[in-house]
Specification:
The structure is a single chain. The protein is an alpha/beta fold. The chain has 5 helices and 5 strands. Strands 1, 2, 3, 4 and 5 form a 5-stranded mixed sheet that branches. Helix 1 runs parallel beside helix 4 and helix 1 packs across helix 5. About 30% of the residues are buried.
C-alpha cells in the first residue's frame, strides 16, 4: 500500500483549557485512522482549531442559526468525493474542524472518560463529516457511531462501560 501523506494543521485559539501533552499527536493519529478506515486515497489536508464556548457559539449561530455552544463543528470543503486541491502540495483539502475545548472537558466529565478520548472522538466524528457522512438519517447515525468506536479502539481508547449496550 502506498503511503498517503496526511497533513493535519492544528491551531489553538483558546486559553480556557490547557492542551494536554500528546493531544496534537493523538488528533493526527485519529485523522489517519479515519482516512485509512474509509480507504481514502491520496494526500489530504485537514485543519483542526481548538476554541472556547463563546467562539463556537458565534460560529454555530453564524453557520447553523443555532444560538448555543456546541462541542464540535465541521466545515467540509468537498462535495460528492470532489475536493479542492492545495496547488503546492497536491493534497485534497478535506475541510476544517473546530472543537470547543471547554465543551470537551464538560463532556469528558459527564461521560466519565478522559479529555483525550473525548477530543479524539469529536475528531473522528468530524473527519467522517468532512468525508460526507451525515447523521440526520438514523442508519447513517448508527454507521457513523460504529466507525467512530472502531477508530477509538484502534487508538487504544475503547468505549467505557457506559457506552456498551447490554444484550
Amino acid at each position: 500500500m502506498t503511503e498517503n501523506k496526511i497533513r493535519v494543521i492544528i491551531t489553538n485559539k483558546q486559553k480556557a483549557v490547557k492542551i494536554p501533552t500528546g493531544l496534537r499527536m493523538l488528533i493526527r493519529r485519529c485523522c489517519h485512522a479515519v482516512l485509512e478506515l474509509e480507504k481514502f486515497q491520496g494526500p489530504a489536508e485537514i485543519s483542526v482549531t481548538f476554541t472556547d464556548n463563546n467562539e463556537i457559539k458565534e460560529l454555530n449561530a453564524q453557520y447553523r442559526n443555532i444560538d448555543s455552544a456546541t462541542d464540535v463543528l465541521s466545515f467540509p470543503m468537498g462535495e460528492n468525493g470532489e475536493y479542492d486541491t492545495n496547488m503546492e502540495t497536491g493534497a485534497k483539502i478535506l475541510g476544517d474542524i473546530v472543537i470547543s475545548m471547554e465543551k470537551a472537558v464538560e463532556q469528558s466529565k459527564a461521560y466519565g472518560h478522559s479529555l483525550q478520548r473525548e477530543v479524539a472522538y469529536l475528531t473522528a466524528h468530524s473527519v467522517l463529516h468532512l468525508l460526507g457522512y451525515d447523521h440526520v438519517q438514523n442508519m447513517e447515525k448508527v454507521r457513523m457511531r460504529e466507525k467512530e468506536e472502531l477508530v477509538m479502539e484502534q487508538l487504544g481508547l475503547p468505549a467505557s462501560s457506559s457506552y456498551v449496550i447490554k444484550t
